[in-house]
């Protein structure tokens, strides 16, 4: 039994993170402290200064744990990670989980490529962005390839030069075919330099060049070519218009952040300024308590947003000072690898830009209020309705499973996850059935569930033995509710597995009628009817459809792989790249079979071990 009073006496006066749990062992709050002893004790002391939200949270605490760190900065990093992973109920939570596209130039390659990327790595590439519109990025990339004829293939150049014929892009004049040696490294580098100038917003050169070429084509009455240049000219102007200059003499990167709020919701507006240009803006909805002020909300937003985005700008202009601003500044510096300044503008253009962000946030909040309510009813509200139907409180995470096969062949299982009424696709899992022969859905489901929960238990144990937090394992998060696609039979299979493993997780079945339509939930030996017009019914239907879709999609992919399978797949130490190289060089299986070890070794992809493996496979 956890004695809160006794455990409070044991708290160390060191920096760290504290984690509050409720009676069902769910994490309901995560916080950081310079002194754990002082901070955690405050929650359990009688005080008139506690907000209603904190009072409610404290009343639900069954036990707490803590992790000490060497510094407040380490505590901040750990707090951000735990909040992002667990999304505790009483933390101020950022609703949106967005990732932004970047344009990446692979400068480490001899013949660089220009592509879209959702991550920023320290890999010698150059990144432009983030951009708030993936469609605009795709349009820009298409224009770049037309203008500068940059390659899009993934061939290893110059190693693979002239090994294959040029692709279609060469024939439609959108690539200069460096893969054939048709353009020198130096000339190609000039094109890449022009691309960087273009992405930096320097359009005058390309506009004048296109105008000149359009006039030349028109003068020699090549009107088809003139129209082509005119269309390119219009495309460049369209891209150029999207880049709004905020300060003609400014080349800094910054994010401008402000919010507007009412009693229950806040909207944070962010303007993204890169090299002095406003390249985009976005807004984020935040769940808040009525007592939370702008400073607290903005602090929570900055910590959550920059723990997830791959790019940290040189400056943050914010509407008000943040809590722990110095610590947050040092944390942002570690993420960026350079000095980061957090500025609260007081006058002039800087202040006007922050006010502009605030006005935009207020506009979004007023316009989106009804939309937010409808979305919450469709997601969190629907999840609460499901919990009420079967008498469960606080259902946030559910897992659903399905089995797919063709006459028992190549059976697979799918696991999908919904959190707060939304699919969490990063936690989806696929299972290839190993122990069951023939079309036996019950036995297949038993294998899937046993593997899923046994893996989760083992992963949790291993992480704890290594001193790691179990929250970061791929299978360690167990659901508040298991939803089986079927009635009593599937539910009983799940309960048997959980009983064998010593786990207590509620299980319900999604029961269908004779026309294969959902009619109710089967829970604790009782079928609970559902109002077919309710949000709960619509969410259950979405969960069923998603589990089925995911299983079918995986099954189709395996069938497709089997159809293109060759004997080379069975050779040890030979992966996809070596199989491709063998077929490219020898053209047929018979030719591979006739080759000796030394002949096989002539391929750059082969080493002696793999060459001997191929030879022995055909001659042993």
What would you note in describing this structure?
With 620 residues, this protein is of the alpha+beta class. The protein folds into five domains: 4-91, GIY-YIG endonuclease; 102-201, no CATH class; 254-369, Nucleotidyltransferase, domain 5; 397-562, UvrC, RNAse H endonuclease domain (Nucleotidyltransferase, domain 5); 567-619, DNA polymerase, domain 1 (Orthogonal Bundle). The protein is built from 19 helices and 21 strands. The strands form four sheets. Strands 14, 15, 16, 17, 18, 19, 20 and 21 form an eight-stranded mixed β-sheet that branches. A hairpin with a 2-residue loop joins strand 15 (409-419) and strand 16. Helix 8 (204-219) runs antiparallel to helix 9 (223-242) and helix 13 (441-465) packs parallel to helix 14 (488-501). The protein is globular. The model is unreliable at 243-249 and 561-565 (pLDDT under 50).
Question: Mind describing the biggest β-sheet?
Answer: 8 strands, mixed
Class by alpha and beta content? alpha+beta
The outline comes out as globular
Number of continuous helical runs: 19
Report the span from N to C terminus: 65 Å
CATH homolog superfamily of the largest domain:
UvrC, RNAse H endonuclease domain
Overall helicity: 40-55%
Rg, Å, rounded: 30 Å
**Amount of beta strand:** 15-25%
Reading off the top of the CATH hierarchy, the class of the largest domain is best stated as Alpha Beta
Count of domain modules: 5
For the residues shown, what is the average pLDDT? 83
Q: What is the CATH architecture annotation of the largest domain?
A: 2-Layer Sandwich
Q: How many strand segments?
A: 21
The CATH topology name of the largest domain reads: Nucleotidyltransferase, domain 5
Uncertain regions: pLDDT < 50 for 5+ in a row?
Answer: 243-249, 561-565
